[in-house]
Write a structure and sequence with these properties.
Structural class: alpha/beta
Distance between the termini: 61 Å
Mean pLDDT: 97
Shape: globular
Largest sheet: 5 strands, parallel
Oligomer: single chain
CATH topology of the largest domain: Aconitase, domain 3
CATH class of the largest domain: Alpha Beta
Strand content: 15-25%
Length: 394
């Protein structure tokens, strides 16, 4: 692999032990995947943030790097943490868990990382431009940035993303290259998609079918960014889709002739089968929205649905701290809380210890959450639209 003089110095240890170790990791990755060189990255998003996910070994790893003076070179955000960093006690997160989560965030802060913990960094001040090379690691953020924005990133692991942040570069392979962004298979949609949960169900079904291929969607009449977010998140969870194209909706779709590709048809029967498979619960303990983290539009929608009502079962809507601050200023948080719900920042149902907080059956409108909750949080799932979940909670 070709290395610049500065990169060679990093590899030789002239920029410190941490940079040397992490650059060695990047070089090894590049060698495995046949990269010819490194490329600068505009921003990074680091996974492996929740104490639930990384435990004591991860905490010690991060504190060691921070104590040795490691500093990031580019704008770097974090994936969701394991709890709301400001209101954890009020919501009921375990105190011992909270102490360790706070230590993790402090280690990241010392390294110069923005301690905004979200899987939607593009809604919270880290919006890459079309064609920009980045190094992001959360699967739904990778899908959205590649597909909807048209930026370029592989699905980084936590260590490789942190390495890119500290070294400022990433190996030039995979989805950074034009030839690897071509669609592999056409998905022909022959059913109406009415809301986010339908897009999540579609994503779950297609991810199972295509695995890590690049799908090209035809027949989606219209979709807003929240619906495209839900589609990509579910495909990344049930399969390993890091990039998709949607005719008339995503920026690179117009670049490809897909007339000779294999085709899969998806209609109402396939979506119904997906709903049947993902619904494993009867009476919910809690409904949790915001996987991926909710936009302001999604928060407003929930506020309008429950304004002036009294919930018998709790509803959380998970979001970034930036979106919650906007909701606070507009009065939407107050509306939701007056009804008995919560706007929960910094975390989500998948990476927080909800199984230790008394919840066993969780209602979601997210295909990604429905896929992960049984294994990650020992939950049964009710997978329905927001309207249906609100009705169950009243």
């Amino acid at each position: 692999m070709y290395l610049t003089q500065d990169e060679q110095k990093m590899l030789d240890g002239e920029q410190g032990e941490v940079a040397q170790r992490l650059f060695r990791l990047l070089v090894r990755l590049g060698e495995i995947y046949g990269a010819e060189k490194m490329i600068p990255v505009g921003s990074v998003q680091v996974a492996g943030v929740s104490y639930k996910s990384i435990g004591d070994p991860g905490l010690e790893f991060l504190e060691d790097f921070a104590s040795k003076g490691a500093k990031v070179q580019v704008l770097t955000y974090l994936n969701p943490a394991g709890m709301d960093m400001e209101n954890w006690k009020e919501i009921g997160f375990p105190e011992e868990f909270a102490k360790n989560q706070i230590r993790i965030m402090e280690a990241f802060r010392k390294m110069g990382i923005v301690v905004t913990a979200t899987c939607t960094p593009y809604l919270a001040g880290n919006l890459p431009r079309f064609g920009e090379h980045i190094a992001w690691s959360e699967s739904s953020a990778v899908s959205f940035s590649n597909s909807v924005i048209g930026a370029r990133t592989n699905r980084e692991g936590g260590p490789s993303a942190l390495a890119a942040a500290i070294c400022g570069v990433t190996p030039n392979y995979g989805l950074h290259l034009d030839e690897n962004r071509k669609p592999d298979i056409v998905i022909d949609i022959d059913t109406a998609l009415e809301n986010n949960v339908d897009f999540g169900a579609l994503g779950y079904h297609v991810g199972k079918q295509v695995k890590n291929k690049i799908p090209y969607f035809k027949g989606i009449k219209n979709a807003n960014t929240d619906q495209l977010k839900a589609l990509g998140a579910a495909m990344a969870a049930s399969g390993a889709v890091a990039l998709y194209h949607a005719e008339g909706l995503t920026p690179e779709a117009r670049d490809y002739d897909v007339s000779g590709l294999e085709k899969i048809n998806v209609g109402a029967d396939e979506l119904k089968a997906t709903f049947d498979k993902l619904n494993t619960g009867e009476t919910l303990d809690i409904a949790i929205l915001g996987c991926p983290h909710a936009s302001l539009r999604e928060i407003v929608s929930l506020a309008e649905k429950i304004a002036g009502k009294s919930l018998k079962k709790p509803i959380w809507i998970c979001t970034s701290r930036v979106m919650k601050e906007a909701a606070n200023r507009m009065g939407f948080t107050e509306t939701i809380e007056n009804a008995g719900g919560r706007v929960v920042a910094d975390t989500c149902m998948v990476v927080s210890p909800i199984e230790d907080m008394g919840f066993k059956i969780t209602g979601v409108n997210s295909g990604k959450a429905a896929n992960y909750l049984p294994g990650f949080c020992n939950q049964n799932v009710i997978f329905q639209s927001v309207d249906e979940l609100v009705e169950r909670c009243l």
